[in-house]
Amino acid sequence: MNAPKLGRLLLVPTPLDFGIHGAGESPDLQDHLPLGVIRQAAALDHWVVENAKTARAFLKRVDAIVPLATPLQALTIRELPRQAKGTKNATLPDLDGLLAPATAGHDIGLVSEAGLPAVADPGAALVQAAHRLGIAVVALPGASSLLLALAASGLNGQSFAFVGYLPIEEQARAARIRELEAASRRVAQAQLVIETPYRNATLLGALLDHLQPATRLAVSNGLGAPTGWSRSDTVAAWRRQPQAMANDVPAVFAFQAD
Amino acid sequence: MNAPKLGRLLLVPTPLDFGIHGAGESPDLQDHLPLGVIRQAAALDHWVVENAKTARAFLKRVDAIVPLATPLQALTIRELPRQAKGTKNATLPDLDGLLAPATAGHDIGLVSEAGLPAVADPGAALVQAAHRLGIAVVALPGASSLLLALAASGLNGQSFAFVGYLPIEEQARAARIRELEAASRRVAQAQLVIETPYRNATLLGALLDHLQPATRLAVSNGLGAPTGWSRSDTVAAWRRQPQAMANDVPAVFAFQAD
């Protein structure tokens, strides 16, 4: 008896417009995702997701374009284990269990809340587990807000770093901003950071307080939404001409020392 | 008399499959790009491009799905100035001239050879010029091979750096690999590098020679093509089980110290 052929782990991108559109609005998924990706998503029976509720909402948008092979209620949708801060080495979640459909021969889709799974989002540990089990990992083409923001910034696209969130505490945040600006100057590298939307204005203020006037600062707010905008300017120009920021729309901040 | 309303600079993603498919094959553009992006591309009359020949091939693929508003021969297609190595501060190319259609009120599309313009590709200087002239910059959603490779690697998607190409000279390359591995260990940051395809195998060999056995190395080769693959393993495991690499297919290399 032969071992069953393994299924694959498909990393399925989702639109960047999550949470930006109001209820009742129904933006066209085909503005955001290739039809080929929508087709592959519609064919899957097994999902591992960051959040089951938003994954179902995504799959309803898929179904409106390419009917799901299996009805939504009959799909297997399992959530990634949530990892509380500071518990990094506490209990190893049962990732192999989440991958059981693939070891039994079925493809599995992985989705996060918005954009690419496992990039600035959970999922990397599951991807590592898949590689360990010999399950092929396939990243389907889709947008990441980080790289759209970088492209729109005009900063160095040949050398850049994403460092996630800055500290919330004011002095630690100021020190980190100066540290990243120094690193940026040393190796001419664009530095990308994100923040939870309700702290957008606070982070922008801190960046304008602590970066040097000649440093170039770029902000993209609401990427993927019609109301989204990108601005790239020196810190001195941002100070002269302040900009309001929505506190409920995701933003990406990038800067590079002169 | 009012000043004319400015056009926008649209950063138009292109498929990652450039150069992977043989002549005669005609992969479906809708496997790679959202229909909304294809529609916006089809509506543009003015283009600034990395390479006019491949831009025309791309626009033919667009036209097959959404007919171009203006026939291909009647489009304005201008190439970005090529910047020879070592001439960084030589002559400032006339980027404002390339943006003249936007100052006259027309949208301009910017495309590179594959993926997102201005990310690991030319275009950033044009984007900066657009911001300086008050021209809105809009990054349309599309994939970057860098972040697909990162997602498929299972390495740290919360902190990563892309540093472009490594030195070609053997000793300088070895030193740079060790330097990046040390940086990766210090801040738990995934490091991404690329190479011209015909040196893929050489770079893989150098990484296996100079990285520590416990460092995790991920390679994605031919992302976006049906024959593409991603492998993520410790350096020790790569050494035990070597892998051939095509010398004509783009690859992304990522590693992270243990």
Please tag this protein with its features.
alpha/beta; Cobalt-precorrin-4 Transmethylase, domain 1; homodimer; 2 domains; 258 residues; five-stranded mixed sheet; Methyltransferase, Cobalt-precorrin-4 Transmethylase, Domain 2; five-stranded parallel sheet
CATH-defined fold name of the largest domain in chain A? Cobalt-precorrin-4 Transmethylase, domain 1
User: In what range is the share of β-strand residues of chain A?
Assistant: 15-25%
Largest interface: A-B, 65 and 65 residues
Query: What is the CATH homologous superfamily assignment of the largest domain in chain A?
Result: Tetrapyrrole methylase, N-terminal domain
Overall CATH architecture of the largest domain in chain A: 3-Layer(aba) Sandwich
Number of domains of chain A: 2
Q: How confident overall, as mean pLDDT of chain A?
A: 90
What is the number of beta strands of chain A? 10
Category from helices, strands and their pairing of chain A: alpha/beta
Q: How helical, in percent, are the residues of chain A? A: 25-40%
Uncertain regions spanning at least 5 consecutive residues of chain A: none
Order of helices and strands of chain A: EHEHEHHEHEHEHEHEEHE
Largest sheet features of chain A: 5 strands, parallel
| Ends apart, CA distance between termini of chain A | 65 Å
Quaternary state of this entry equals homodimer
Cα shape of chain A = elongated
**Which strand order do you get reading across the main beta sheet of chain A?**
3-2-4-1-5
CATH class of the largest domain in chain A: Alpha Beta
